[in-house]
Design brief:
With about 90 residues, this protein is an all-alpha fold. It contains 6 helices and no strands. The protein has a domain of about 60 residues. The longest helix has 10 residues.
């Protein structure tokens, strides 16, 4: 059904990649045991605010450029280990 919709919108369904993901969030107790868990950090950086501009409104330095949104820009299958490490390094402690 998804590929049929893609075709209705004038796109090539064979060029379309449908990705579904499930996120898990750790509770406060977990973060105390391992405060810089890379998976938790990446999830928070990507999905921590629906509107990434809200990070700055809360006084937290943004990890991604202004106007960047995971739903439009994040391509996990194209994000290599080096780029992932760079993202993790930019995540503020706060």
């Amino acid at each position: 059904m998804v590929k049929r919709k893609v075709e209705q919108y004038g796109r090539d369904p064979d060029e379309f990649i449908f990705v579904s993901g499930i996120s898990a969030f750790s509770g406060r107790g977990e973060s105390r045991r391992n405060p810089r868990d890379p998976l938790d950090e990446m999830v928070r950086a990507l999905f921590g605010r629906v509107n990434p501009d809200h990070w700055e409104a809360e006084g937290v330095e943004r990890v991604f450029p202004k106007g960047w949104h995971y739903a439009l820009k994040y391509l996990p299958w194209e994000t290599g280990a080096e780029e992932t490490q760079d993202i993790l390094r930019r995540i503020p402690r706060r």
